[in-house]
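As noted in the main text, all predictions were made from sequence alone. Below is one such record, for Antitoxin.
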Amino acid sequence: MKTVNLHEAKTHLSRLVDQAASGEAFVIAKAGRPMVKVVPLDARKTEQPRRIGFLAGQISVPDDFDRMGDDEIVRSFEGS
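Prediction:
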């Protein structure tokens, strides 16, 4: 795997990113010490779209939801 120093990576970033996107991963080193590995994203692994509202009507949130557990929290802080 190709290793480039930080200065070279900054100077040729566009070309290096194009190469990485085509499958040629590389490592960026600072003062000879490897720091990061640049690899292409796997286009096949796409995130599932969020299904907002798919449980509508199936669950309910109590009116006092934002106050639930207040007593326990106070006791925890007071040590009682």
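The chain has a mean pLDDT of 88. The CA atoms of residues 4 and 28 lie 5 Å apart. These features were considered when defining construct boundaries for the mutagenesis experiments described in Section 2.9.
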